[in-house]
Amino acid sequence: AKRTMCMRQELLAETGGVLHQLGASLPRMQNAMAAFLAGGKRIRARLLLAVGGSGQSINRERLVRYATFVELIHAAGLCHDDIVDGSSTRRGRASMAAAHGVPAAAAGGLYLMARALELVAGEEARIRAIVADAAWRAARGQAREMTDLYREDVSIEDYLRRCSDKTASLFELAAQLGAVASGVSLHDEKATATFGRHVGLAFQLADDLRDIVGGPLLGRERGTDIREGVYTLPILLTLSERREGWTALRSGLRRARLYRRQPDVDACCDIVDRNGSLHASARILHRHLADAAATSRRIGGSLGEALGVFAGDLADGVGEITGGGQ
Predict the structure, then answer these.
(1) pLDDT in tens, 245-267
(2) What does the radius of gyration of the chain's CA atoms come to, in whole angstroms?
(3) CA 33 – CA 20 distance, rounded (Å)
(4) For residue 56, what pLDDT is reported?
(5) Distance of alpha carbon 70 from alpha carbon 18, whole angstroms
(6) Cα–Cα distance for residue pair 47/172, rounded to 1 Å
(7) What 3-state DSSP class applies to 166?
(8) Distance of CA 131 to the CA centre of its chain
(9) In the predicted model, what is the mean pLDDT of the chain?
(10) pLDDT surpassing 60 at residue 324
(11) 144 burial class (0-12, 13-18, 19+ CB within 10 angstroms)?
């Protein structure tokens, strides 16, 4: 187990090296792009390597190429998100759009997407189809988020479907590519993709809660999503179920949209915290983690064990905001 963990760390470091080289090759933006790609937790690459590193035979080149691919796709999406959202910061520093302007950020995002696709262009047709499906779903989820901005009538089902597309699709892709690289059966490959989807949904819902809680310990300003008109699960639960304070929340959301004042945003966060919507969202989050863990147990073997460890680590990571609540 220790040797396997060391091998995964080596592969993650190799992935980071390739990302640095690719970032440093962008003319006139070498330093900015290399610094941008150096940030982040690389959780999607970690998932891919956890899956791919559990096989009997390890194809290092393929694993690093796939891990680099998913990180580039994710980074390209972040460039796009920051343009659409008007975000001034990303990963604790100025966003590409804020530091270098929207045209440069747009060009940088296209560059990352092009280099990502270059890495899988020579793959067999089935792999290209898997990649294309994930890219389409991610784009569809992003489009839905943009059209849903400031909408108070989005159903919980539609919201979770949007999260499955926008965020979980890339986790699902990472898990499935890792499974392909490790040479597992088609049954285990599909089960591993299902695991990735549950993990991706849990990851997104954890981010939803983190936005409501906010504060210096979590490293983010409270209620950023509310100010940007992205109404997440705790907000939508309060509105759709008409929980305590739902009319005050509607008023607060409209004031936050009109005046963009932090006290209005804080008031909205306080309402969903007091009426239990925060804890209800945490229960849904933990249900997806439990489903991921159950999937890993059904797979079994070294792959199932690796997935179980990954799900457990993610559960530990979100405990700070959910209190471990089931």
Answers:
(1) 999 999 999 999 999 999 999 99
(2) 20
(3) 8
(4) 66
(5) 13
(6) 10
(7) helix
(8) 16
(9) 90
(10) no
(11) middle
Return d(Cα 273, Cα 147) in angstroms, integer: 26
Among candidate residues 1, 3, 40, 49, the one with its CA nearest the CA of residue 19 = 40
What the block records as the tokens of 28 is 């006139």
Q: Mean pLDDT throughout 19-29?
A: 88
Each residue's pLDDT tens digit, 135-183: 999 999 999 999 999 999 999 999 999 999 999 999 999 999 999 998 8
Per-residue pLDDT at 287 exceeds 80 = yes
Tell me the two tokens of residue 272: 């969903």
SS3 220: strand
Alpha helix stretches (DSSP H) within the chain: 2-24, 30-38, 43-52, 60-85, 96-100, 102-120, 125-147, 156-163, 169-182, 186-213, 224-227, 233-240, 246-259, 262-274, 277-299, 301-322
What residue has token string 């926008």? 166
pLDDT at 7: 85
Bigger pLDDT: 39 or 298?
A: 298
Token pair for 324? 């471990």
Tokens matching residue 111: 């560059």
Q: Under DSSP, is residue 93 helix (H, G, I), strand (E, B) or coil? A: strand
CA 235 to chain centre: 20
Evaluate the CA torsion angle 21, 26, 28, 34 in order and state its sign. negative
For residues 176 and 189, is the Cβ–Cβ distance under 8 A? Answer: yes
pLDDT value for 326: 42
Q: How far apart are CA 171 and CA 168, in angstroms?
A: 5
Look at residue 317 in the predicted model and tell me its pLDDT: 78
Phi, psi at 147, each rounded to 5° = -75, -20
d(CA 227, CA 25): 36
What does the pLDDT average to over 170-199?
Answer: 95
Give the amino acid at 251: S
- pLDDT of 325 reads 44
Closest listed residue to residue 170, CA positions, set 152, 197, 142:
197
Residue type, 61: E
DSSP state of 89: E
Joined together, the tokens standing for residue 298 give: 């059904």
